[in-house]
Amino acid sequence: MNPSIDQIKEAIGDMFFRQPPPVKRTYSNGVDPFCKCCNKDTFDDNRDYYMVRDEVWFQIMPTKKGMLCMDCLETKLGRKLTAADLTLCPLNMDPLPIGNQYTRQLLLDSGVILPDGAVILAEYEKLFIHG
Ligand SMILES: [Zn+2]
């Protein structure tokens, strides 16, 4: 015997009208993309996806695990990011939209990379010699 509509409504009514809980996006690769400071999803905006040198990261974070969005990184550092803070990984210099155009511009402005993507290591080394 099939249940009546009223019986179904009575059984699932609460589920039916309840608002779903806010969904926090999850990623299957085990990476936690959410900023440890403000909880922003760092995968939403390429400006928030970058690599800094370990010496820079460990000034403000106790472990390599986790992400900081660019705003929180610069707030914690107490200054704007510079080319000398960055690693020379493709993420920081890719001209395609997948790359971080903020870090790419820092590397371009300092002469570490050229618009065609060439890396000028001598310019990168100068950043550390002269501060
Ligand atoms: Zn943040």
Describe the structure.
It is a single chain. This protein is mostly helical. The chain has one domain. 38% of the residues lie in helices and 0% in strands. The protein has 6 helices and no strands. The structure holds zinc ion.
Whole-number average pLDDT? Answer: 87
Q: How much of the residues is beta strand, in percent?
A: under 5%
Number of H/I helices: 6
Give the CA-based shape.
elongated
Task: Report the order of strands and helices.
Answer: HHHHHH
Quick one: biggest sheet?
none
Task: Provide a short characterization of the protein structure.
The protein is mainly α. Helices cover 38% and strands 0% of the residues.
Fill in the keyword field for this structure:
binds zinc ion, 6 helices, mainly alpha, 131 residues, 0% strand, single chain
Describe the secondary-structure layout.
Blueprint lengths: L4 H13 L36 H7 L9 H8 L12 H4 L7 H9 L11 H9 L2
The protein binds zinc ion.
The site of zinc ion (ZN) has 8 residues, from helix 3.
